[in-house]
């Protein structure tokens, strides 16, 4: 009888430890997310399942072109690409991204831009001053984010700049559907 009870206690301890480890990993290191909507096409598709690395920004700051998940509202997280960093001025004019007046290439948009017909607009022109907040440069601990599907994305053009403390983490792995499995770089 005592042997059977010890076996149950061992199983209970193992389950408690496994649950605790899962809680720690999910809370502080990684979390799953499902892409909801077309705003990151063609990079990410509606229904893609991803793992978000929450640890990255505990030890560092976002880099340009990172794909990040952030709290857009109290109940909704969005996934977008970091375009502008603190201290920068951002402008898009004639389908070209300018950071502090210098052209910055966006190779992840080449296919879409090359398929535009005359007079089609992929990214409507804007300057940082046009965004909510009327900033002349991105303030400390904030980023400007845009969806890759610029003509169909709720991003900094509507939401304003995103404070670091609203960023959940960086998209790390697309794991479902399996035929689209890849590490996000």
UniProtKB/TrEMBL annotation:
<feature type="active site">
    <location>
        <position position="80"/>
    </location>
</feature>
<dbReference type="GO" id="GO:0004252">
    <property type="term" value="F:serine-type endopeptidase activity"/>
</dbReference>
<dbReference type="InterPro" id="IPR019757">
    <property type="entry name" value="Pept_S26A_signal_pept_1_Lys-AS"/>
</dbReference>
<dbReference type="InterPro" id="IPR000223">
    <property type="entry name" value="Pept_S26A_signal_pept_1"/>
</dbReference>
<keyword id="KW-0645">Protease</keyword>
<keyword id="KW-0472">Membrane</keyword>
<keyword id="KW-0812">Transmembrane</keyword>
<feature type="domain" description="Peptidase S26">
    <location>
        <begin position="8"/>
        <end position="176"/>
    </location>
</feature>
<feature type="transmembrane region" description="Helical">
    <location>
        <begin position="12"/>
        <end position="35"/>
    </location>
</feature>
<dbReference type="InterPro" id="IPR019758">
    <property type="entry name" value="Pept_S26A_signal_pept_1_CS"/>
</dbReference>
<keyword id="KW-0378">Hydrolase</keyword>
<keyword id="KW-1133">Transmembrane helix</keyword>
<dbReference type="Pfam" id="PF10502">
    <property type="entry name" value="Peptidase_S26"/>
</dbReference>
<dbReference type="GO" id="GO:0005886">
    <property type="term" value="C:plasma membrane"/>
</dbReference>
<dbReference type="InterPro" id="IPR036286">
    <property type="entry name" value="LexA/Signal_pep-like_sf"/>
</dbReference>
<comment type="similarity">
    <text>Belongs to the peptidase S26 family.</text>
</comment>
<feature type="active site">
    <location>
        <position position="39"/>
    </location>
</feature>
<protein>
    <recommendedName>
        <fullName>Signal peptidase I</fullName>
        <ecNumber>3.4.21.89</ecNumber>
    </recommendedName>
</protein>
<dbReference type="InterPro" id="IPR019533">
    <property type="entry name" value="Peptidase_S26"/>
</dbReference>
<dbReference type="GO" id="GO:0009003">
    <property type="term" value="F:signal peptidase activity"/>
</dbReference>
<dbReference type="GO" id="GO:0006465">
    <property type="term" value="P:signal peptide processing"/>
</dbReference>
């Amino acid at each position: 009888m005592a042997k059977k009870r010890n076996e149950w206690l061992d199983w209970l301890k193992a389950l408690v430890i496994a649950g605790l480890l899962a809680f720690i990993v999910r809370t502080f290191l990684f979390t799953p997310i499902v892409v909801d909507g077309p705003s990151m096409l063609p990079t990410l598709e509606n229904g893609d399942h991803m793992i978000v690395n929450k640890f990255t920004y505990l030890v560092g700051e976002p880099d340009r072109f990172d794909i990040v998940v952030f709290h857009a509202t109290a109940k909704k997280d969005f996934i977008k690409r970091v375009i502008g960093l603190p201290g920068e001025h951002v402008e898009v004019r004639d389908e070209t991204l300018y950071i502090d007046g210098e052209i910055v290439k966006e190779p992840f948009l080449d296919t879409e831009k090359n398929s535009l017909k005359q007079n089609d607009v992929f990214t409507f022109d804007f300057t940082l001053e046009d965004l909510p907040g009327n900033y002349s440069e991105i303030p400390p601990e904030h980023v400007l984010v845009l969806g890759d599907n610029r003509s169909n994305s709720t991003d900094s053009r509507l939401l304003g700049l995103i404070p670091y403390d609203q960023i959940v983490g960086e998209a790390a792995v697309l794991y479902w559907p399996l035929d689209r499995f890849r590490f996000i770089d």
